[in-house]
Design brief:
Layout (H helix, E strand, L loop, with lengths): L2 H7 L26 E3 L21 E3 L10 H6 L6 E3 L19 E3 L7 E2 L12 E3 L7 E2 L12 E3 L21 E3 L7 E2 L12 E3 L7 E2 L12 E3 L19 E3 L5 E2 L5 H9 L14 E3 L8 H20 L3 H20 L15
Parallel strand pairs: 1-2, 2-3, 3-4, 4-6, 5-7, 6-8, 8-9, 9-11, 10-12, 11-13, 13-14, 15-16
Helix pairs in contact: 3-4, 4-5
């Protein structure tokens, strides 16, 4: 071992907080580590059962970007009394380790591993978990009750996996879940009961899947839904009243939308609720059909609908002079709000072509 490696390894009787990526040997005897230990970006492939016996009061442990494929969790984790954050990302795990000894765990990261499934009761002993991230694995299977007893979980990240379906029971146990990321998977259908067990969701990312069918009442249980990303899927149409409650953001760009009469309800809904359908840095939502609307921007149909709403409101207000000006003001104000969201620049801007 070279001198500088030896020096990096022998750090007894001091206040060690960080070790660079040259580590080959680490002696933590008689240190005063009490909160956080980072061992990222090393070549660790094995952790001895009693490796952390001298740091029982750690709250944050980072072991990302190593070569760890398995952990003898029993004796290794039993030493920890307060551990709340554990990062095992970018290693070589093929299955989720047991964390049953870590009853105070609040955050777990297992991103960028080789995990293929989430087994039943995988986190059932970690009832205080608030955040789980399993992004960029090879997960294709989620067993029923995998997330049982996670009453405090707020965010679940399953992006960049191979999940093909979310069956009933797969999301049970997370009644307080607010953020669910299923971006870049292989989902093709959303069934009616998919989200019934996670009614508190506010942010749902379903972008870059293969969705072509979304059953009518699938979003009905999600009364607090604020952000829904459906971009880059295969959606051609949506059943009437697929969305009922107001959702402030429904991203729809990069879908082959067929803007025929079956989609009239959607245009009306988007206008009435002032819904954002794409972000400034994204391509606009275009109609793929029928032929007369091919290449037409969805926002143009929304502007037409908004103008028709204004015309109807102004016409109805003529019968009551006292309320006429109020009606005109309310509808003009409504259209101005649409412009602020990016839907046109003035009342007469109605195009019938592409960009």
């Amino acid at each position: 071992m070279t001198p500088h490696l030896l020096e990096a390894g022998k750090r007894s009787h001091n206040s060690l907080v960080d070790v660079k990526n040259v580590l080959e040997l680490l002696d933590l005897s008689d240190n005063c580590l009490s909160n956080e230990l980072r061992l990222n970006n090393n070549q660790i492939n094995n952790i001895a059962p009693m490796a952390f016996m001298n740091v029982p009061l750690l709250e944050h442990l980072y072991l990302r970007s190593n070569r760890i494929s398995s952990i003898e969790t029993g004796p290794l984790f039993q030493v920890f009394k307060r551990l709340e954050v554990l990062d095992l990302s970018d290693n070589s795990f093929t299955k989720i380790p047991s964390f049953k000894e870590l009853s105070n765990l609040r955050q777990i990261r297992l991103d960028h591993n080789n995990i293929t499934q989430i087994e039943t009761l995988a986190f059932s002993s970690n009832s205080k978990l608030q955040f789980i991230s399993l992004e960029d694995n090879q997960i294709s299977s989620i067993s029923r009750n995998s997330f049982d007893s996670l009453d405090e979980l707020v965010a679940l990240n399953l992006a960049n996996n191979s999940i093909k379906t979310i069956e009933r029971g797969m999301l049970d146990g997370m009644r307080q879940l607010q953020q669910l990321n299923l971006r870049n998977n292989s989902l093709s259908v959303l069934e009616k009961l998919t989200f019934t067990s996670v009614p508190q969701i506010t942010t749902l990312d379903l972008a870059h899947n293969a969705l072509y069918k979304i059953e009518k009442d699938v979003f009905k249980p999600l009364k607090n839904l604020f952000w829904l990303d459906l971009s880059s899927n295969r959606i051609e149409t949506l059943e009437n009243n697929t969305f009922k409650d107001k959702i402030a953001n429904i991203l729809l760009n990069d879908n082959p939308l067929c803007c025929d009469e079956k989609l009239n309800w959607l245009v009306t809904y988007l206008v009435a609720n002032q819904v954002r359908t794409f972000l400034p840095y994204q391509t606009e939502v275009l109609c793929a059909g029928p032929e007369k609307y091919k290449g037409v921007r969805l926002k143009e149909l929304m502007i037409v609908e908004a103008n028709e709403t204004i015309s109807t409101g102004e016409h109805n207000s003529v019968d009551n002079d006292r309320n006429g000006d109020i009606g005109k003001f309310e509808h003009a104000s409504f259209l101005q709000k649409l412009y602020k969201l990016g839907y046109g620049s003035n009342q007469n801007e109605i195009h019938h072509g592409g960009n």
